[in-house]
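W.,

You were right to be curious about this one. When I first looked at the sequence I had no strong expectations either way, so I just let the prediction run and decided to look at it fresh. Below is the sequence, 99 residues in total, followed by the output.
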Amino acid sequence: MERIPESLKICFAHGGGGFAFLLGRVDNAWKHRDIVRDDCPRPPSEYAHRFHVDGIVFEPGALGPAGRSDGPGPRDAGSDYPFPLASKASARSCAAPTS
């Protein structure tokens, strides 16, 4: 990540997949394996804010850590268009929570 400009926006589709759930594992590898630290001077979780995730999930809870305000990074709107998988449920899961 050190060689990639911060201006490049990287987005993981489908609520980020397993990204948020794997951060602890890759941080652990970084902590215990010298070979990982050779190319990554900081723990991988310190780069998480640079990754966006979309909110195209069909179950609001599926966003898990990625959907929280303190999650890995910004959450973007997305669409399944023009594919028939698109639904109003996915649009609602992307909406900001109401109080």
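Here's what jumped out at me. The mean pLDDT is 75. And, maybe more interesting for your project: The radius of gyration is 15 Å.

Coffee later to discuss?

I.
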